[in-house]
Amino acid sequence: MLSWEYPPLVVGGIAAHVEGLATAMVRAGHEVVVCSLHHPGEPDDATVDGVRVLRADAALPWLPDDDLVARMASANHQLVQLTARLGTWQPDVVHAHDWLTAWAGDTLKVLFGVPLVATVHATERGRHGGHLPPGLPGAINSVEWWLTYQAREVIACSRFMAREVVSGFELPPEKVHLVPNGVDVSRWLTDGERLPAEPLVVAWGRVQYEKGFHVLARAIAELRHRVPGIRCVIAGRGTYLPELQTHVDIDGVADLVQLAGFVPDNELKALLGRAGCVVIPSLYEPFGIVALEGMAAGAPTIAARTGGLAEIIEHTDAGLLFEPGNHHELADAIELVLTDPHLADRLRTHASTLLRRTYTWDAIAARTAEVYEVARR
User: Fold this and answer.
1) Over the stretch 337-360, which tens digit does the pLDDT of each residue have?
2) CATH architecture of 185-358
3) How far is the C-alpha of 99 from the C-alpha of 105, rounded, in Å?
4) What is the model's pTM?
5) Out of 3.40.50.2000, 3.40.50.1100, 2.130.10.120, 3.90.950.20, which CATH number does the structure's domain 14-182+360-376 have?
6) Cα separation of 372 and 151, whole Å?
């Protein structure tokens, strides 16, 4: 597997996905090697939970910082070089996760003479609301298109993403396979019994415009005088952070909304253990693994009715949905969950059942292995 991020190097949701999938594949009896990037304090060749993790130092200062595609293409050479450490060991399949590892995936499929499988976790067109602004987004879209063309089989994490990939890259529908994300419930359970819920709203993820955190800030402003003691923590880093801080200031909720930056998993679990609800306010979300993580932690979940989020929650009674971008609807949903303990308990119960039935990594690894077998035919 090729991934630009692998824990403890975490940028977005891909790190958790690849780790969960890789370790579950090992439990199923497969040999898995993950090629990813160097992270300070981590060895560049180690076996973790049965997964051999190779890491490349891709710091290439001679390329301009503003040419992302050129830097990624050059850094992919470093990922390919990692395979020199494998000796006589050879894979049966090369699996590239998103466009950032497209070049390495295409090269290794030829070097090893094996099929390439690609997972498209999101698309640049989708991030920009269905259109491509000039410049970098168009270049990334071209790499995404090329990756799906070069791959024998393509995986999408939701029906929404499968439709987007088929139409956006003009792929035959039979080439695109639906395999959802998953969650390791044991990693999100809080220690001991869950504490009594506070009027605390928690949200987290990459701080980008499409994640909709500014919508949550406006909803909190509406709730100042409707829910006594309400406060909100938004955890995560990203390029939209300064603009989000401006939204928080303009909406007059700087005393209620804390932009916490990066929060380690143990601290995030502690927050979720006290939270009255978690909110995923995304304007665009191919899947929404944070929704599964919130449910796994036992926090009532409220999410925007968009993309994969809607598919996870619709008709399950495992969470509440609101129209993307509608801060009035979001405010009403938050107030309902924070003031109705019976509703909150019902959402938690149904969420626990949903996770056990549908979103275990072992089930998802089995479905991924089926795609590998199709690719090898």
Assistant:
1) 999 999 999 999 999 999 988 899
2) 3-Layer(aba) Sandwich (3.40)
3) 10
4) 0.79
5) 3.40.50.2000
6) 11
